[in-house]
Design a protein that fits this description.
The chain is α/β, with parallel strands linked by helices. The chain has a single domain, classed as 4-Layer Sandwich (Purple Acid Phosphatase, chain A, domain 2). The protein contains five helices and 13 strands. The strands form two sheets. Strands 3-2-1-10-11-12-13 form a seven-stranded mixed β-sheet, with helices on one face. A six-stranded mixed β-sheet has the order 4-5-6-7-9-8, covered by helices on one side. A hairpin with a 2-residue loop joins strand 10 and strand 11. The longest helix is centred in the N-terminal third of the chain and has 14 residues. The structure holds fe (ii) ion (2 copies). One fe (ii) ion binds next to loops.
């Protein structure tokens, strides 16, 4: 339950247990920091593993069990659905689609992954579930959680993995009055405002699978009455406010700086930068 009408949600994403780029210290520190905050809920928005293997899922489940929080939402990412990993996901974390209902807010999480594909899709067969959950929530603050991003993220090279039905999903979310969308996947933290929604993308919390000059981080979302503040927290380091909005009045501030590209320092006039991107096997 929330304390005195105030909710704190920590969103951690793309921890990638089993990856050679996984840094245990970063995840352990993030968990300690999050437990210190005593959040109302913890969201782990996919890519808990690097390849969906049993041992990596078990490692990730052990880490997730360290959160001292009674409301933990876990959804799979594309890496978790490799090698039939969704079997282990369901055994260790339960349903791939889930809802957490608070007095002041509702959080709906969905699985956008497809077996052995990096591309994402939610699918029309799940729209009724999403619509019903948010419609039943009335005036509560509405939060949607999905691994793949619904809009392109700057500083991520060639765009490949917006979910196939992003247009239809965005229309549905706007129609039912969603306030906040929490995603991951690209390992680049960023936020967009679209209609009355804020689309907040988390970085990777515990890997050096980073693009450009981005750093490992996770999100802290503080909700008090109608006011929502999203902070980006760097493990061991500072936190910074990225979005501050009032869901009732639609007033907002957004503090996103231009995402660093992979361009080298120094003058680049007269040259055309090469396209950036990684091979498909490294797809976020
Ligand atoms: Fe991903
Ligand atoms: Fe990832």
């Amino acid at each position: 339950m929330s304390r005195e009408g105030r909710l704190t949600i920590c969103q951690i994403s793309d921890i990638h247990c089993g990856s050679p780029y996984f840094i245990p210290d970063l995840l352990e520190r993030s968990i300690l920091e999050i437990n210190d905050i005593e959040p109302t809920a913890v969201v782990i928005s996919g890519d808990l593993t690097d390849a969906g293997y049993r041992q990596d899922f078990e490692t990730s489940a052990e880490y997730v069990s360290r959160f001292h929080c009674e409301n933990v939402m876990v959804i799979p990412g594309n890496h978790d659905s490799r090698n039939v990993g969704y079997i282990h996901f369901e055994r260790l974390f339960g349903e791939r689609f889930s809802v957490i209902d608070f007095d002041e807010a509702i959080m709906v999480g969905v699985d956008s992954s497809e077996p052995d594909l990096n591309d994402g899709r939610i699918g029309r067969e799940h729209y009724d579930f999403i619509r019903q959950a948010f419609t039943d929530a009335g005036e509560k603050l509405k939060i949607f959680v999905v691994h793949h991003h619904l809009m392109p993220i700057p500083g991520t090279g060639r765009e490949r993995n917006i979910i196939f039905d992003a247009g239809d999903v965005l229309e549905l979310l706007a129609e039912v009055g969603v306030d906040l969308v929490l995603s991951g996947h690209k390992h680049v933290p960023y936020s967009w405002k679209l209609e009355n929604m804020f689309l907040v993308n988390a970085g990777t919390a515990s890997t050096t699978r980073l693009r450009g000059n981005t750093r490992p981080c996770y999100n802290i979302i503080e909700i008090e009455d109608e006011r929502v503040r999203v902070y980006r927290k760097y493990p061991f380091k500072e936190r910074e406010l990225t979005v501050d909005f009032n869901a009732a009045t639609s007033e907002y501030s957004r503090y996103e700086e231009k995402v660093d590209s992979d361009l080298p320092d120094g003058p680049v006039s007269g040259s055309t930068p090469a396209a950036t991107g990684t091979g498909d096997s490294e797809e976020s």
